[in-house]
Design goal:
220 residues, Cytochrome Bc1 Complex, Chain D, domain 2, 12 helices, 2 strands
């Protein structure tokens, strides 16, 4: 009982720390003017982060605004450890985060997403068993593109190497440069090996989704 109470307290405190930017109304036009620090990585299709790990940076166009705002807030507080993102987030106000979140949530056209595993990526049976074990659809939705709460991310079609790095980061809670602190995710990933997380990430990354990288005109 004490363990369960501590868990829910941790979830509550984490959520309280990340709600300020979400509570603000974002301005799409303002976000478009403030994204100069974002397009250098997120505006180039296939761009790879090189430190502290190598992976393609996430697709964020078409992502839920509330999730983008909460992620930026987590980088600013240190709940997410990543040197570049921490540096960017440190210079953002809550309103800046809300504006950027509004911009990126509307910067990609919404495409129809078929329910379930439309593409059936290789190894899907094993992956689906692992995802069921983790209860992943309970938050991210049946097709991993319709989260039950807007503060949760769409993950279908996300870069699989980024998904794997993110899952591993939740296993590395508290570690400098790579760790992420989010009570639900920290608890979920503990039951899986690195190899199992890779199977899950590869499967989700192969599904059809709404996330895109909108190529910046500065990178064309």
């Amino acid at each position: 009982m004490d363990k369960l109470l501590r868990f829910f307290c941790a979830v509550f405190l984490y959520c309280m720390a990340c709600t300020s930017a979400q509570a603000l109304e974002g301005n799409v036009a303002a976000g478009a003017r403030k994204n100069a620090m974002c397009i250098g990585c997120h505006g180039i299709a296939g761009y790879h982060a090189s430190f502290p790990n190598v992976y393609r940076v996430p697709k964020i166009s078409g992502q839920n605004a509330a999730y983008i705002a909460s992620a930026l807030a987590a980088y600013k507080t240190g709940a997410r450890q990543h040197p570049t993102m921490r540096g960017v987030a440190d210079g953002l106000s809550d309103q800046d985060m809300a504006d950027l979140a509004a911009y990126y949530s509307t910067s990609a056209p919404t495409s129809a997403v078929a329910a379930g595993a439309a593409k059936s990526p290789e190894g899907s049976a094993a992956a689906m068993a692992l995802l069921a074990k983790g209860g992943c659809t309970g938050c991210h939705g049946a097709n991993f593109s319709k989260p039950i709460d807007p503060s949760y991310p769409k993950i279908a079609g996300q870069n699989n190497d980024y998904l794997y790095a993110a899952l591993r980061a939740y296993q590395a809670e508290g570690k400098n440069l790579v760790g992420r602190k989010q009570p639900v995710m920290n608890g979920m990933v503990k039951q899986f090996t690195a190899a199992e997380l890779k199977v899950m990430a590869n499967y989700i990354g192969g599904l059809p989704g709404e996330l895109q990288t909108i190529q910046s005109s500065h990178a064309r």
